[in-house]
From TrEMBL:
GO terms for molecular function: hexose transmembrane transporter activity. It comes from Linum trigynum. This is Major facilitator superfamily (MFS) profile domain-containing protein. Its main location: membrane. Coiled coil: none annotated. Residues 95-517 form the Major facilitator superfamily (MFS) profile domain.
Length: 532
């Protein structure tokens, strides 16, 4: 017992001595830590003061002074921007989300008549008239062609923000006319007005996203327009489901579309204008203000200096239509137009038109079939958004078109006599879902984004209008001739032709398309356009 107590006393004494020794060492350690911390803070403060002084030195200079007086200018602001890092992506995101409302409306009006056409024809007195039903669908495409043809001149004339608001106006009026009409002619007028807004919206959205997004997330933001289109399509299908059982529900479907259109017109009043358009219009001070809203104050001068690389060479003058058809701009216009033409000749819209028949023959309800197609489209678009700024536009395009070629071959085999009827159904249904999925991975979202990147700023809006007009013309003829060709040459040959166009697209992209991932619009322009 005595030994045990002695052991406890000795152990306690050791602990006390250890605590005393530790306390005696604390001031010395605290002094070392304080000196170390002071050095870190001093280095950080010196770096911050260096960046601030460099930035405010540029802030005192106007853009014109920086461009005209290079000998007396301080170090290159682009190098300072590299030290600072990438601009914050959150600043421009809210503006992009507002712009994607136009893509949401585009998808909604594409699908709004799918579930409601039967009840519309019955209530308006043209039930069984296939010509009238076809006009209700195709009139919208005709309006879209007209709207896309003039979209470039509108965007360059009044700016990107006002172009969005002008795009919303015919959609609101057209939806109201369609929702209140008592006859076929009123429906056609409403669909024509809506189509005009549909044609105007996507080109302006592609321009706006490319011009206000930081380069390192431009691909991701560009994919948001495709995702918004998917949500619009799926929304129109779900909202239209009660139309078959509820009398007059189709009118509600048209009224609903006026809400996001009005939201687009109002919210655009608070969004940033494109600095590219402002600078091209000679409003450099306003361009700096908008760059500060979109990128942050530290990145304003570097963005302005970067923008001057291309815009400094181009005189502010009107672009003639003939400039888009030959000369040094012909190459990029040809690439853009061909991409859109191959996108439609891949047969994607024909697959959408024919999918309900294939699913019906397989015993799948139309509601479930439309949901499956919509989910495949949405899933592919989300994956494309994730990969756009990692793999790049070129890789996604080639992989997407190659996947569509394989999918079309699967459908061609399903339509042949090489397989049994049960196998044919599985191959056809699987081929359709695979076509939609692979299309959404690249061939759907990339062409619009890529075109807005490779077109020079001086002709960007008008060249985009020409390329989109090509898109709508090819889209119209594919929809017009698909059923007739299906009857005359059969699905085996037709799907083989579509597969061949997809492989042709792979070859075209490999030989002609430049990778734009992570590059500024000015770097892309300098790489593509011959200097004169």
């Amino acid at each position: 017992m005595i030994l045990h107590c002695q052991s406890v006393v000795e152990f306690s004494s050791s602990i006390v001595h250890l605590l005393i020794w530790t306390q005696s060492r604390l001031p010395e350690k605290a002094q070392i830590l304080a000196r170390f911390r002071g050095r870190i803070l001093s280095t950080s403060a010196m770096r911050e003061r260096h960046l601030e002084n460099s930035y405010y030195a540029y802030k005192r200079l106007s853009s014109k002074d920086f461009l005209d007086d290079r000998e007396d200018a301080p170090p290159d602001p682009i190098e300072i921007s590299k030290d600072i890092g990438n601009p914050p992506w959150r600043r421009s995101l809210v503006h992009i989300l507002v712009a994607t409302i136009s893509s949401l409306l585009f998808g909604y009006h594409l699908g709004v008549v799918n579930e409601t056409l039967e009840s519309i024809s019955r209530d308006l007195g043209f039930s069984g008239n296939t010509l009238a039903e076809g006009l209700v669908v195709s009139t919208c495409l005709g309006g879209a062609f007209v709207g896309s043809l003039f979209s470039g001149w509108v965007a360059d004339g009044v700016g990107r923000r006002r172009a969005f608001q002008l795009c919303a106006l015919p959609m609101i009026v057209g939806a109201s006319v369609s929702a209140t009409t008592k006859n076929l002619w009123g429906m056609l007028l409403g669909r024509l007005l809506v189509g005009t807004g549909m044609g105007l919206g996507p080109p302006v959205a592609a321009l706006y996203v490319a011009e206000v997004s930081p380069a390192y997330v431009r691909g991701t933001y560009g994919s948001l327009t495709q995702i918004a289109t998917c949500f619009g399509l799926m929304g129109s299908l779900y909202i239209g489901m009660p139309a078959k059982t509820t009398m007059g529900w189709w009118r509600i479907c048209f009224w609903v579309s006026a809400i996001p259109a009005a939201s687009l017109a109002i919210l655009m009043e608070f969004c940033a204008e494109s600095p590219y358009w402002l600078l091209k219009s000679g409003r450099s001070a306003e361009a700096e203000v908008e760059f500060e809203r979109l990128l942050g104050a530290l990145h304003v001068k570097s963005a302005m200096a970067d923008l001057s690389k291309s815009d400094g060479r181009d005189e502010v003058e009107k672009v003639k239509f003939t400039e888009l058809l030959y000369g040094r701009h012909f190459k990029v216009v040809f690439i853009g137009s061909t991409l859109f033409a191959l996108q439609q000749l891949s047969g994607i819209n024909a697959v959408f038109y024919f999918s309900s028949t294939v699913f019906k023959s397989a015993g799948v309800p139309s509601d479930f079939a439309n949901t499956c197609v919509g989910l495949c489209n949405l899933f592919g678009s989300v994956v494309a958004m994730i990969l756009m700024d990692r793999l790049g536009r070129r890789v996604l395009l080639m992989g997407s078109f190659f996947g569509m070629a394989v999918s079309m071959c699967i459908q061609a085999v399903g339509a042949s006599s090489l397989v049994s009827s049960s196998q044919s159904v599985y191959l056809s249904v699987g081929g359709i879902l695979l076509v939609v999925l692979t299309f959404a991975l690249g061939a759907g979202p990339v062409p619009g984004l890529l075109l807005s990147e490779i077109l020079p700023s001086r002709i960007r809006a008008k060249a985009m209008a020409v390329c989109m007009a090509v898109h709508w013309v090819v889209n119209f003829f594919v929809g017009l001739l698909f059923l007739r060709l299906l009857e005359q040459i059969g699905p085996l040959v037709l799907y083989t032709v579509f597969s061949s166009f997809c492989m042709l697209a792979v070859i075209f992209v490999k030989k002609n398309v430049l990778e734009t991932k992570g590059k500024s619009l000015q770097e892309i322009e300098i790489a593509l356009i011959p200097q004169v």
